[in-house]
Amino acid sequence: MVRLFAMPPENSPDSNLISSPPRTRRKIRVAEKSALLTRAKLIDAALETILAVGYYRASSNEIARRAEVSWGAVQHHFGSRERLMYAAFEAACTEVTAVLKAARVTGDTVEERLLSVQDVVFGFFGKASYVGILQVMWNLTSDPDTSDELHGSLRAIVAQIYDEYVRLMLQVSPDASTEFAWFSYMASWGLAVAAASGKVLRYADDLEESNLLQRRLLSKALSALLSESTRTAPAGAALIESSKS
Amino acid sequence: MVRLFAMPPENSPDSNLISSPPRTRRKIRVAEKSALLTRAKLIDAALETILAVGYYRASSNEIARRAEVSWGAVQHHFGSRERLMYAAFEAACTEVTAVLKAARVTGDTVEERLLSVQDVVFGFFGKASYVGILQVMWNLTSDPDTSDELHGSLRAIVAQIYDEYVRLMLQVSPDASTEFAWFSYMASWGLAVAAASGKVLRYADDLEESNLLQRRLLSKALSALLSESTRTAPAGAALIESSKS
User: Fold this and answer.
1) Which residue has the higher pLDDT, A68 or B205?
2) Which domains does chain A have, with CATH numbers?
3) Rounded distance, CA B109 to CA A222, Å?
């Protein structure tokens, strides 16, 4: 069984460095820098390879070849193809969490604010590379060799993205219920994945334009749904601005 | 290069059979039946294997093992793993096209009719096995060995499903524009894929209940969007029944 997330050894390289002579220290730092660069190259190449040749053909060898690193680099730096894939998934999720954290909800109406949130969400889930991320997620979940620890980490990362989304949704409207936020997230996610899939399948040339129209229609539909569900308490609508503080 | 969709030889087995003695004919028929059964087993096993161990580990050998057929059966009956995967994709699409063709749109209001269509769409795109079908589609599209002919067939099958959806949408409301039908399809597809993905990731125990609520909310949102877009021509709403004939 592949053990993902093995803990680092208790004597970390940093604590050992303290007693090393300066020359050795510099050498080790250079080696560490080079290792980080190789890891980053492999993480980038993993998603690129999936998109270029499909998930099935994205073997460790093929990824290393495209990353222009040595044949054994995946094994050396990650331990296994699965662990490299997880690292690529984690890097992408960390990025989107940061983007959502930094996002500003703009617009005078609920519909405009919904669109501003969707634009952010779409910027991640609507990219062709998300089709690769989805496959990593599904494959790691189904893989019998995936450890319980990894299953837990996968869920935690996904939950973190959703928490950031909810924070934005409360800026769209303080009337947004948990039910509405969840539905809105699923619908926006789904529409973005449809767009990402359309990019991979290269169905149309005017995808960007079509995707923007789709986001506008969803914002309109969600706004209508929200105003219908809060029609009994219209006073709440006036509180939208105050929730931003 | 793998040639998918090679044409059958001009002298088909059936035409040869006419001059065969009765005994040989029966033998060949038994052999044909057995071949069909093996093909069907492999097609079923392909999606099951993807769900059980992930797309990457769903090799020809693993699929044959789970189908309980001989090691070389994939090569013998399909020529390649890719062609088996395409056959599984085609079988699933043929099934959903038939289901959509046979579907009846029911309900007194646009919202109810939208829900009845979504229930049908969801019955296919919302199944965990659709996550496998999606991966087949994405992988065959990205695979450099996929022939142009296959790319064309993939698109044609997907277009057929959408044509059936549009037919149902016109039964929901004759006011449904091309734009609305496309948006409604993408949104329903996306929500169903979100549900299918949730099943694979096993995020919650009460998925069925949650998914029904999501479909209800989408029907409500789409209905609000449609009535808003046709508000300028309310007379059209009365024509809903007449379009069904």
Assistant:
1) A68
2) 15-79 (no CATH), 81-244 (1.10.357)
3) 19
Residues of A in contact with B135 (CB under 8 A): 55, 135, 138
- What type of residue is B213? L
Contact check, Cβ <8 Å, B55/A138:
yes
Q: Residue B68: what pLDDT? A: 96
In the A/B pair of chains, how many CB contacts fall below 8 A? 147
Q: Which helix (H) or strand (E) holds A50?
A: helix A22-53
Q: What is the pLDDT of residues A129-158, one digit of tens each?
A: 999 999 999 999 988 888 888 888 888 998
Interface of B with A in 15-54 (CB under 8 A): 50-54
Half-sphere exposure of A36 (CA within 13 A, CB side): 6
pLDDT tens sequence across B12-34: 444 444 455 667 777 778 888 88
Q: How far apart are CA A51 and CA B113, in angstroms?
A: 38
Q: Confirm if A4 and A83 have CB atoms less than 8 A apart.
A: yes
More confidently predicted of B197 and A30: B197
Cβ-defined contact of B139 to A54 (cutoff 8 Å): yes
Residue of A49, A59, A85, A139 to mutate, testing the B interface (most B Cβ within 10 Å of its Cβ) = A139
More confident residue, B191 or B9: B191
Least confident of A11-20, A91-100, A132-141, A158-167: A11-20
* Residue B58 in tokens: 């769903």
Kind and range of the H or E run holding B215: helix B207-229
pLDDT tens for B111-136 read 999 999 999 999 999 999 999 999 99
For residue B17, what are the contacts with CB-CB under 8 A and spacing of at least 6? B25, B28
> Are the CB atoms for B91 and B43 separated by under 8 Å?
yes
CB-count burial class (<10 Å; 0-12, 13-18, 19+) for A14: exposed
| Residue where the block lists tokens 């924070």 | A167
